[in-house]
Design a protein that fits this description.
binds NADP nicotinamide-adenine-dinucleotide phosphate, two-stranded antiparallel sheet, alpha/beta, disordered C terminus, 10 helices
């Protein structure tokens, strides 16, 4: 699978990141193993999880996704070939939300224990805890890098100005900086006025920041849970707008011309932005994952990319 660099001088990672939020909880162990095997067989090595996945699923308390990944890495003896990203910041099972230095250190240890690994490849701030100074947070990550507990740092659900604040601080104090930001992002734009709190959607400012500061944008929920192509899953209300009516019609027309699924086209579109946006994509069965992986092979022409720009305020330049 093609690889892309995170940030200016970060590691090279698989162009399609596999989201494992529901592995080991809503998606049972056998199916989760099957999907991980399928992704690895396709050459994929970039796995995304978090300490709290998936505390909101009835019957689970969080940590199950990391535990499942850890078991799979041990059973397959392939930790060296994989790039493991996890996050902390949200609360779950007796863990209070927050990103003070003590919480970061403690949750890093908890994730390492559940994953059964010595070093987390990419460690995200899962949200922007504004009660803690960015300095305290980034120094906590520096400490973890120095101890060999984490390799790179990423952010998620942050505004552009906060990313710039963190970048300037890290530059001036020679601290490890955020090499990437994982945000809600897809081909359609959130309807005007929608607030996804605590999630944050990518906007013009963030895209502009990423491009000019060479911080990689990763898109979560890129497929809107498959609703681009699925007849059993209507488009979320939060994405209904006159602008999106036009964008969706354009997407469907380009997909029909190319003989591909709309879901696949969205993944290809993300990867063919300049700079590319890495999709963090979920799947709950082999057919879905095959379809998503095949999206990597779709090449859009300049004309098709131009057509897909159509209308809207969120521009990927
Ligand atoms: N940083 C954050 O705050 C944050 C937030 C959310 C997610 N994430 C990460 O992003 C990953 C993906 O998020 P997501 O699950 O919300 O996004 P998604 O990739 O848009 O949705 C995945 C779901 O879409 C359906 N699907 C996937 N491929 C399909 C296909 N080819 N055809 C039809 N349906 C398809 C499946 O739903 P069914 O299972 O219902 O069939 C699948 O579970 C997560 O696993 C997690 O790692 C991060």
């Amino acid at each position: 699978m093609k690889k892309l660099r995170l940030g200016i001088d970060g590691p090279k990672v698989s162009a399609l990141c596999l989201g494992t939020m529901y592995f080991g909880n809503r998606i049972d162990r056998n199916t989760s193993y099957d999907l991980l095997d399928q992704y690895a067989a396709a050459g994929g090595s970039f796995l995304d999880t978090a300490n709290n996945y998936a505390a909101w699923v009835p019957g689970f308390e969080g940590g199950e996704s990391e535990i499942l990944l850890g078991q799979w890495l041990r059973d397959r003896q392939n930790r060296e070939g994989m790039f493991i990203a996890t996050k902390s910041g949200f609360g779950y099972a007796g863990v209070t939300p927050g990103l003070n230095a003590e919480q970061i250190e403690k949750e890093c240890e908890n994730s390492l224990r559940r994953l059964g690994i010595e070093t987390i490849d990419l460690y995200y701030s899962h949200w922007d805890d504004r009660d803690i100074s960015i300095e305290e947070r980034m120094k906590a990550y520096e400490n973890l890098v120095n101890k060999g507990k984490i390799r790179y740092v990423g952010a998620s659900n942050h505004r552009a100005w906060r990313m710039e604040e963190a970048r300037i601080l890290c530059q001036s104090q020679n601290l490890p900086a955020y090499c990437c930001i994982q945000q809600r992002f897809t081909y359609l734009h959130p309807a005007p006025g929608v607030n996804f709190h605590p999630q944050v959607a990518a906007n013009d400012d963030l895209i502009d920041f990423c491009r000019n500061r060479e911080v990689t944008l990763l898109a979560y929920t890129p497929l809107l849970k498959g609703s681009y192509s699925r007849t059993d899953r209507p488009l979320p209300e939060t994405y209904k707008s006159p602008t999106n009516d036009i964008r969706l019609a354009t997407l469907k027309s380009v997909a029909a011309d190319m003989g591909v699924m709309e879901n696949q086209l969205v993944l290809a579109w993300l990867l063919q932005q300049d700079p590319p946006v890495i999709p963090v994509v979920g799947a709950s069965n082999r057919a879905q994952l095959s379809e998503n992986l095949a999206g990597l092979d779709i090449r859009l022409s300049v004309d098709q990319l131009e057509k897909l720009k159509c209308v809207g305020t969120v521009k990927v330049f």
